[in-house]
Amino acid sequence: MVTGFSAGAQMGLRWSILSLQGVQGKTTGGTPLQIILGSPSSVTYLNDRRPAKSCSRLEDQSPEHNCTSFLVPGSGGDSQKSCRRHWNRYGFGISGLERGSARKGTIRSDVSKYVHRYATDDTMLQQLIPGHFATKNIVFQFGTTDTKDCIRGACADDCGAMVQGTSRLQRGLNYMWHLKDTFPGYEPKFSTFVGGHRPELFFAGDYFNQAAFGKSGWEECLWDSLTCFSFLVQCIVGGCAFLLGGAIVGTYCCIHRKHREEAVRREAEAHGYQRYLQEKNMSIEEGQPMKGSKTGTLIASGKP
Description:
alpha/beta; four-stranded parallel beta sheet
């Protein structure tokens, strides 16, 4: 099994389109191979047509979204812009992989070398690659709320990506309809999971687990969920509570100690003053001046 989510799904889709692995649902060695991909940022189209503008409206972000109109960008009417005629370059499309068409050292140059290991004739390239892909056992899944506008940084905002749709969910659903449009009679396998762009939800879901392992998934508690707390949040909350409790106890001890020291000081001062008064009275009774006391000297000498 080959699987990936987000950027991993984007890479996995490109590999599944270009590789000989998975043709007829098997590896080149005859082992069954399934490919499961979740919420790629952009996708790789298998021909030069793209969803019409009416299929990529920002306000249309429903999980039931569909698209039945695909046009060559720049052809007028409801077609998308042509991105300076680069809308179909690999990896938004499969053009630009012809032998010698890409500058050496670039990704397209390396990919071109890879596909020409088995596709020796450039004229067959545009037919061979889609033909192989249509026989592969590939499954897609998308989040129902993975609808953030890609222009705001939620996903790829290249021109070649934007003509595919405005969000990950819309791009994914448009791509499912693109596969139907490209291969008459072909039914892509896909589903949605409740949630946004969260790999935890993708890998914990029933659909993925049934496809991958033949068993049910589980309910995943997200770390930032308001309805449940993950182990990470429990650790964070527990640590904060411990630190707060320690700060409160420490503050109380410091205040209590300070009050106690103040009380001891005041008690000592009170005792010292009483002793002074006692010594003063004794000095007056004996007629002796107190050391350092002018008042005591005057009273003892009887001077007015």
